[in-house]
Specification:
The structure holds two protein chains of two kinds. By secondary structure, chain A is mainly α. Helix content of chain A is 73%, strand content 3%. In chain A, a hairpin with a 5-residue loop joins β1 (141-142) and β2. By secondary structure, chain B is mainly α. Chain B is built from ten helices and no strands. Classes of the chains: A mainly alpha, B mainly alpha. At the A-B interface, α1, α2 and β1 of A face α2, α3, α4, α7 and α8 of B.
Chain lengths: 153, 179
Amino acid sequence: MDRRDDLDRILERLPSDAPRRELAAEISRYVRGKRRSAFNRRLALTLALAVSGLWLSSPLISALVASQKSSSSGLAMLLDWIQAALVGLESFVNYTWNGLTGLQAGIADSISASTWLGVAVLGLSCLLALDQLLPTGADTECTSNGSHKGAEA
Amino acid sequence: MEQELIRRARAGDQGAFERMINIYTPRLFKVVRRMTSDTNEAEAILQETFWRIWKALPRYQEDHHFFPYLATVATNLLRDSWRKDRWRLSDEYEALADQFPDNLPTPETQIEAVERLQALAEAVADLPPAYRAVIALRYDAGLSYEETAAALDLPLNTVRTHLRRAKAVLRQKLETFDG
């Protein structure tokens, strides 16, 4: 056996400090604490976004409530759509498309940009709320060649 | 069992993940401790490594070996925590390492003495961080050359060169120890 093999052999059994007996338990506690604080941060962000979104989009909500009360839109329009669907697919598609674009144009005329921002914020808060129901989000991937990206960055 | 634990942890089972922490902590600590002489830093790196792994688990591909993944994350965290000039090799050190031949005939074929092992461990601790990392990943973590290169984000040939130079320095230290 030459010196090269000798050195490899020694390096493979080089002495090293053992970890403290309680280190694994401490790491588990650390991960639990980080999970909890991450969850709380996301919950707070979700609530903040939901409240701001509701406030910003209140004009739209008011408009939708008002439209439900009038006979020419809202629930009545939904019933119209269902009836149109029974009449025929083509007429249904046309009717829906015209109805949606008309509704959109009407809302856009009367609702300010801040309302749309509110809708977007509300949507974001819904997405965050849904995300919290899933396991903690991933930010890394393990690629097929054995390299690992993201988490270690 | 490893894959079963990973599968359960990916599904959000904290207990399974804590079992993984129990299983892998001693081995990972050995690797990280070899790279840094600071025990507190090694422990902090382990904590952060497991936290990042937990976050990354949903995208972990189960057909890959888990320990190289752990070692990769830990190595990169350690590297990031150090200043670049502490990690980078100086030209003088590389030149010095190149002066040592790596194929000297051995004065003895069996090196069993604990003192010699300890001396070599101290010699490894004195190596520049880049060399220490290669030694730790190759010998303590048992990674292949390819896995080591991927973990350090270095070309394969650079890893081979680092390893050759590190071993040349260690041989020289052993000879000095032997008198």
